[in-house]
Amino acid sequence: MKAQSQTSDVVATISRSKASGKSALRAWLRLWACVGSVERVVRTRLYSDHGMTLPRFDYLSQLYREPDRRMNMTELSRRLMVSGGNVTGLTDRLVADGLVKREQDSSDRRVQIIVLTDDGYERFIQVAREHEKWIGELFEDLSPDQMRVLNQTLGQLKQSLEEKLNEQQEA
Amino acid sequence: MKAQSQTSDVVATISRSKASGKSALRAWLRLWACVGSVERVVRTRLYSDHGMTLPRFDYLSQLYREPDRRMNMTELSRRLMVSGGNVTGLTDRLVADGLVKREQDSSDRRVQIIVLTDDGYERFIQVAREHEKWIGELFEDLSPDQMRVLNQTLGQLKQSLEEKLNEQQEA
């Protein structure tokens, strides 16, 4: 009876873990599809309504979120998860347009700091207000309750994924 | 009193819509962060454990999901949302490795069909099993109840976004 019961337990565990694997895979494919769709809308509207590209918007938003609107180039590149070359080219164009400026770190002249200018700040705010409106429209079919639970679950997932990524990097 | 009440209604509507805008923006940033983290893990493990790139895996998975394991090049490019040039290069390499083959549509010789070969099918299955396992591990901190609600909400959001995208294209 014990062996029988243990076998059943093992079978139950396998099917449970398979079920949760399928359920996780479904969630992942849906997450991916949703992000793809929202990105398409945002990319199109940013460009058609504001002549701004998505990488440019992401770049400015990273600086905007910092308390002193500045970040070192290495950290900025890491967050934008694109190659250093691309960030350099993007920076050149944003500097030319007066939206950001380059500074050297006072304590280590080899470290380059990128600063959001006042013009860049104004420009970002203007586009970000619209961006927030589009996102609101895209999510409008979800009820306040669904939004609350979704935010809670995604917040937990985000934190759990960050912890797993850190463990992986340390391993 | 009527005017007063109408004004309150308008104010209430504005703050409600602002609140929902913030809540939607938060959900969007979390969705994006989660997808970014999962993609990083999948990209790294696909390459380190199977010598396979993410675009290659996505390409094979599109064909795998079709009942007859074949798709025309135009549709495949659209789904992979990369430029035609990239898909052509990727196809060349997959053909060279014997994982897919090119065929011409019997009813219209200008239409190119891509077919998953038996080798491609076997190779994809092998990697997809592992992929499903990684995804299961990445989502393991969510309870079965959370997974169920998440899948439900994301399913609804996915459909709503697709409808909005279709309306936009038709407009």
How would you describe the overall organization of this protein?
The structure is a homodimer of 171-residue chains. Chain A is mainly α and 171 residues long. Chain A has two domains: 1-50; 52-136, Winged helix-like DNA-binding domain superfamily/Winged helix DNA-binding domain (Arc Repressor Mutant, subunit A, Orthogonal Bundle), CATH 1.10.10.10. Chain A has six helices and three strands. Chain A has helices at 2-50, 54-65, 73-80, 84-96, 118-138, 144-170, and strands at 70-72, 100-104, 112-116. In chain A, strands 1-3-2 form a three-stranded antiparallel beta sheet. In chain A, a hairpin with a 7-residue loop joins strand 2 and strand 3. The two termini of chain A are 42 Å apart. At the A-B interface, helix 1, helix 5 and helix 6 of A face helix 1, helix 5 and helix 6 of B. Chains A, B: Keywords: DNA-binding, Transcription, Transcription regulation. Chains A, B: Residues 7-159 form the HTH marR-type domain. Chains A, B: One of its GO terms (biological process) is response to stress. Chains A, B: InterPro entries: HTH_MarR-typ (IPR000835), MarR/SlyA-like (IPR039422), Tscrpt_reg_MarR-type_CS (IPR023187), WH-like_DNA-bd_sf (IPR036388), WH_DNA-bd_sf (IPR036390).
